[in-house]
Amino acid sequence: MIDTTAHVLVSLLALGMGLAFLSADRQSPTSRALASAFALIGVAVYCNVVLLPQIAVLGRWSGWFAVPEVLAIIYVLEWILRVRRTTAADAELDTHTGDRVLRVGQLFALLYGALSILFPELRSSAFMHVGGQPQAFLTPAFWLFFAPVLAAQLAGLAGILLLLNRRPDRAEAVRVIAMAIAAPFLVAGFILPLNSAALSAGLGEIVFLIGAVHYHVLQGQRGQFMSRFLSPQVARLVSEQGLERAMQESQREITVVCCDLRGFTAYAAAQPSSQVLQVLREYYDAVGSIVSEFNGTIKDFAGDGVLILVGAPLPVAYHARRSLQMARRIRDQGLALTQHWSTPAHRLGIGIGIATGTVTVGVVGSASRLEYSAVGSTVNLACRLCEQASSGEILVDARTVDLAGQAGLEPRSARMVKGFLAPVPRYGVVV
After folding, report:
1. CA torsion through residues 285, 291, 295, 301, sign
2. What is the pTM of this model?
3. Of 28, 69, 136, 162, which cross-links 44 as Cys (Cβ 3.0–4.6 Å)?
4. Nearest 5 degrees, angle CA 109-CA 110-CA 113?
5. Could you report the per-residue pLDDT of 315-340, keeping only the tens digit for each?
6. How far apart are CA 177 and CA 399, in angstroms?
7. What's the CA gap between 170 and 101, in Å, rounded?
């Protein structure tokens, strides 16, 4: 009686990995394909090593136990294919060859399944776990089954190499490289003696698990970084409900805050580029941290300008009042930083404009790039008020004052603003 405890553990590990990948990101077709692949690996190990020997009466029907193996190979190749389709490619690269190679690999997997169903006894005697009989590797019967499996594996490796040629981001590259390393260990589980097969398959699963953990750690670090620029509520909404829910087009009243460095153009022309980049990094970091505290969303960085939405994608109670509080914080922090960066010849400062009104928010862009945008005269007004503000000044429109009250504000003379037919009433925040 063969002890199959090790194989049961290998099967449970594969099933657990599949469940983990699915529960971590069930909305993603890529994650669903990966989860299906490992769940089927677990089923295949259990059926062919643990269950099949106990059901000797199956006879010719035993070939159907190859179906989970076939589907596992198909889903691994499908996962690679879907990863390829989520990775932008250089326009000069051939993006179709890799897809075709992976589809051919799936056809080889189907061929292996058909041969297993047609010749189940030959599969059991001449192919499955014959590693203890080196002479078996020289028989045509062995290669009848191993050749399509090997061809499918080589197709997957070719697909991974072509994917890496497209220079995917680091997180995805780590995961696909882990699969390239793990695949030979998993395939070896077909032919090695039973005890060695369990060890080989287990090593393959662990190798990929290490890559998957690195992938999710890197993704988590990105989310942590982005949460400084998106409000935590938006980051949570995207994580839990997906981008579609967070980015639905709608019309709503929000407050728009625009801030811009004064004297930056002349400063940038006179300073080394490394110094200019350092200034922008510290500036963006400071603004991003403050925006996050007030549940705002940074819509755009444009040079030394930052456009902030308060009230979208998620509603924010008392958005006008919170925007004024946020603007004061940005001004105070910005003035402290600009004083530190300024030189005797080039003085820096910061000006801020605030406007409230109804805008249309949603996703705009092309198939290759999407951007969350707010469209409406309110956005233009906030930017124009920012242009008019001197260093340390916060200019506010009348609607913001209506909602937030006049405390801490003083009227300024109405002025013509580009894009508006009549002079625009303005208010200034008292220092």
Report:
1. negative
2. 0.60
3. 69
4. 90
5. 888 999 999 999 999 999 999 999 99
6. 55
7. 24
